[in-house]
Amino acid sequence: MLLLADSGSTKTDWRIVKPSGLTILEFKTQGINPYFKSPEQIKRELRKQVLNPIEGLSQVIFYGAGCGHPKKANELALVLDEVFPAESSALVQGDILGAARSLFQNRPGIPCILGTGANSCVYDGEKIVGTVPSLGFILGDYGSGAVLGRDFVQQLLSEKLSPELTARFFEKFALDRVAILDRIYKQSHPNRFLASLIPFIHSEKSDEEVQALIKSSFSKFFEFYIHPFRQKGVEYPISFAGSVAFHFQEILLEVASELGEQIMEIRPKPLDGLVKYHCA
């Protein structure tokens, strides 16, 4: 049996499958990013969250944010080998390769991720052949949950949103200005906190101010993550994976159309496609 995982900064989706692709078990843990957590931290968290041992595994295949660097991938593979013993050593790859294989299988394309973070690449049907810099939610990640949350909070605390929208926010969340700034600047994982505001932003997406914020961020995604490839003559189709892309797909499709782009597919999670890829 294979243990497949797809991890973002917020959560990790796991699935145990037979070689035929039949799902045996699904479960979730916190997001695992080796840039933000030490191997010992990851090991402790996994053992705390996965209470029962998993036996009979042939291999663990893990796709995750922060796993594109070989050193970090190797560190995480050693942890996975210890926590989930299998016949073969764990295989750890970056989340964007997971999105590419899920969305395009063995066909060329431009896979995009819009979840807590954001990313894209050029995939030739076998490997990644083009990338843009991954700068995180402070310098990049346009359109992601963390950046939409960041931009919303910036507008909120600058008193640029309507009194009615501001009142609805503070009625929903037991937070004040000091508490919000504390969560962003003093506590760990500010990107997760900012992304946790996405359900509220989604519930207010028909508000003109919120819709303008979303459209602006999605436009910047195309400018930063798609246009550089187009300028180099790459005409591959585009598909998206991730919760933000899925739940805001009407606005995302509208922005794409306005920019002359067509999106082939939008998936909330890559795992279904990864099962197909690895069990084909």
Automatic annotation (TrEMBL):
Signal peptide: none annotated. CDD domains: ASKHA_NBD_PG1100-like. SUPFAM superfamilies: Actin-like ATPase domain (SSF53067). It comes from the Bacteria. This is BadF-type ATPase. It comes from Algoriphagus zhangzhouensis.
